[in-house]
Amino acid sequence: MRLIFDARHLSLTYTGLGRYTQAVLEALVAAPTRPDFNLVVLMRPSEGRGTAEKGQWAPRAGVRGPQLEWVDVRPFSAAHYARMSVLVDSLGGDFYFYPHFDVPFGIRTPIIFVVHDLLPLLVEGYVQRYVLAKKAWFKFALRHSLSRAVRCHAVSQTTRRDIIGLVGARYAGKVGVTVEGPLLNVSRTGRPDANPHTRFILYVGDRRPHKNLKRLLDIFRILKSQHDYPGELYLVGARRNYDFDVDAYAAEVPGVVVTGPLPDDQLAPLYCAADALILLSKYEGFGLPVVEAAAMGSRVIVSDGGSLPEIAPRERCLIPAAMRVTEAAASIAHFLSKPCPPVDPAYLARYSWDQAVRSLFPFAFADSPKRVAT
Q: Chain-wide mean pLDDT for the chain?
């Protein structure tokens, strides 16, 4: 059994897609796969700026390494769609895995691919230039990938429902759900001995319009002024602005700390020490910070946007989009006044990369079928 694993997105350092690809690859390499399973990994060499160097990625010590094939074809380029099929089919795989929706054209090897969300189609303002052309391309690429694939994995029930709503029931039998796991190394992170006088609510993400940061800042302002919340709000993530100037607006709200992006070794302690993670997006296909915060033992506050109610633990604070900011602030204040409950172990067990690779590649394991149903 031979799997061609397209890991060229590892070159997109610090992106969600790059980190997802790395997590799946590392979990698969470390898993107890069947003796006749053979893994071929397509890697993209460095161009000298934030991309994977040859030899930079390697399996953990004591684990049988995959065969690495270096491919100088950039994802999302014209060459990606036109040239990859010849290479992939020449490798003689039983399956080809691609971690995104835009599968290269012309591949004859049976295809498995992943859809993370339909944000460009469902969220107004997510695409800001060439809107009609980009939406048309997204629909075409997704339909093409579904027509050629043996299996499509959505990262949530919400994303699966959205896919079927777009393409119709014709491909429903091909679309399954495989959730993600935490990307931070939870096993090596303990709850720090934080200063008991330092309290904060944590936001992790970018500043795209669907993240609803203006609403978040308005709620936090009321939480401070009317409910005497003694802590701060940390905004962690990329600092590029879209629909409004987040830095200028945040400067007018007392207690807001803008950190910019942080490496994992600095982000993990923040998850652990926070009063809660807050994510009030209008829509999310998955919402990884929610799972990471729960894995770290932190409370979570989420909106009802997209998959967030689906993936958040039962012990969450739910802030519907229709709730007024004054009511939302009062609900959050009440939530934070209660002791932090333990997260259900069954919830944590569901969101693991070991479970993910067993769902993505059942043929790689001795206790699973060899073939993916078409």
A: 88
Q: Which residue is associated with the tokens 């994995």?
A: 153
CA distance 23 to 7: 11
For residue 369, tell me if it sits in a domain: no
Kind plus residue range of the DSSP H or E element containing 30: helix 16-30
Q: What is the mean pLDDT of residues 123-145?
A: 88
Angle at 176 between CA 173 and CA 180, to 5 degrees: 170
| Structure token pair of residue 48 | 């000298």
Same structural domain, 95 and 193: no
Tell me, rounded to whole angstroms, the distance of Cα 76 from its chain centroid: 19
Residues 82 and 168 in one domain: yes
Segment (H or E) for 153? strand 149-154
Query: Residue 248: is it exposed, middle or buried by C-beta count within 10 angstroms (0-12/13-18/19+)?
Result: exposed
Residue whose tokens read 């005497």: 228
**Boundaries of domain holding 147:** 2-181+352-364
Give residue-wise pLDDT tens across range 5-40. Answer: 999 998 876 678 888 999 999 999 999 999 999 999
Give the CATH number for residue 85.
3.40.50.2000
Do 11 and 157 share a domain, yes or no? yes
Distance CA(230)–CA(224), nearest Å, equals 7
For residue 227, the one-letter residue type is H
- In this structure, are 21 and 148 located in the same domain? yes
Higher model confidence: residue 88 or residue 123?
88
Q: Are 275 and 336 in contact (CB under 8 A)?
A: yes
Give the DSSP H or E segment for 114: strand 111-115
Neighbours of 150 (CB within 10 A): 16
Q: Report the number of distinct structural domains present in the chain.
A: 2
Distances from the Cα of 221 to the Cαs of 230, 259, 265, in angstroms? 12, 18, 29
